[in-house]
Design a protein that fits this description.
single chain; 333 residues; alpha/beta; TIM Barrel; 7-stranded parallel sheet; two-stranded parallel ribbon; 12 helices; globular
Length: 333
């Protein structure tokens, strides 16, 4: 029987913004459709609330939180919310898909030109709609009011510091996947200086040493995430794996292990609908062998053959389960 899988990042909610009625079953347009996730053995999928940094992003984020809520209500036979340790315990025996929400880009909680207090109120509404969040990422590709995205050189800004303070102790991790290097190091320094209670992860990132791309982690940052008992989710996008070699996916995994990440490595495939992506030079966005969630059993079999058979259960689910159990050890809601 294939190992159960937990994946830290997909953009199904953003895709569903454009479908009426909501259709999480369309496996032709997105690799994280409900049927593909079920066929691939995914037992828990983190549903990112993604918005670009632009005017109106907050309405998009709020609507995605409502879509999350509607999926769990209207398709209760297919999915359910995972928001506490008891629900984690249910994963192995429940035939449905477990789901938890996260925020990819804090521009979704606050417009660039409105008071931050209003954004924090909106964050609470999103949490109320989804029950809880696993993580929050401050930025996407560009710079925003919180700090620098991966395509910028900006670091941690004052609103970013306020948001970190606000989230401290809330049992919500901070996601470094779209942080600029300056933002990443700025957040680490600020967390340490102010003794903040903030776990850190990179939900969908590979390693810059294996393939040079700003979206991939430099070694010292990856080591810091590992040292802090965080998670690093392997990203399946060709642009971050290697433009010419699909086997480089396993080189990224091997590199993470070399850095000491045996208890940090996991999956963050980053499946999204690529139909209208402006950069068509990236087609195909995924190698065929990584193209959708049905590929997980074959990927795990390759991990067992090429990397370490003992790593399969750790990589597929146990590392994430350990992290979430530690994060949620004390009931807080």
């Amino acid at each position: 029987m294939p190992s159960p899988v937990i994946d830290l990042h997909c953009d199904l909610l953003a895709y569903l913004l454009s479908t009426t009625p909501l259709n999480p079953f369309d496996r032709e347009r997105i690799g994280s459709s409900f049927p593909a996730l079920a066929e691939g053995g995914v037992k828990l999928q983190v549903m990112a609330i993604f918005t670009p940094t632009k005017s109106g992003s907050t309405a998009m984020a709020l609507r995605q939180s409502q879509i999350f809520q509607e999926l769990c209500t209207d398709h209760a036979g297919y999915c359910y919310v995972v928001d506490d340790v008891e629900a984690l315990d249910q994963l192995p025996t429940d035939d449905r898909l477990g789901m938890i929400a996260a925020i990819e880009n804090a521009s979704g909680i606050c417009e660039e030109d409105e008071p931050l207090e209003k954004g924090l109120e909106r964050l609470e509404q999103i949490i109320s709609n989804t029950s809880r969040l696993l993580y929050v990422g401050l930025t996407h590709h560009p710079e925003n009011r919180f700090g620098g995205g991966n395509n910028s050189a900006a670091g941690l800004k004052e609103d970013g510091k306020t948001l970190l303070q606000y989230l401290s102790g809330r049992k919500i991790a901070i996601d470094f996947s779209h942080a600029s290097d300056a933002l990443a190091y700025g957040m680490l320094e600020y967390i340490d200086q102010h003794n903040l209670d903030l776990p850190i992860i990179a939900s969908h990132s590979n390693y810059r040493e294996v393939f040079h791309h700003v979206r991939n982690l430099p070694d010292d940052l990856a080591k810091d995430i590992i040292k802090r008992k965080g998670l690093i989710g392997l990203n399946f996008l060709r642009a971050f794996v290697n433009n010419d070699d699909s086997n480089a996916l396993y080189d990224h995994l091997a590199h993470g292990l070399q850095l000491g990440g045996a208890q940090a490595v996991c999956f963050g495939a980053d499946y999204f609908c690529t139909d209208h992506h402006p950069d068509r030079s990236r087609v195909p966005f995924y190698y065929p062998e990584h193209s959708d969630a049905t590929r997980y059993p074959a990927i795990l079999a390759t991990i067992a053959d090429r990397v370490d058979p003992n790593l399969v259960t750790a990589m597929s689910s146990e590392n994430v389960l350990r992290f979430m159990r530690r994060l949620w050890a004390e009931v807080d809601h």
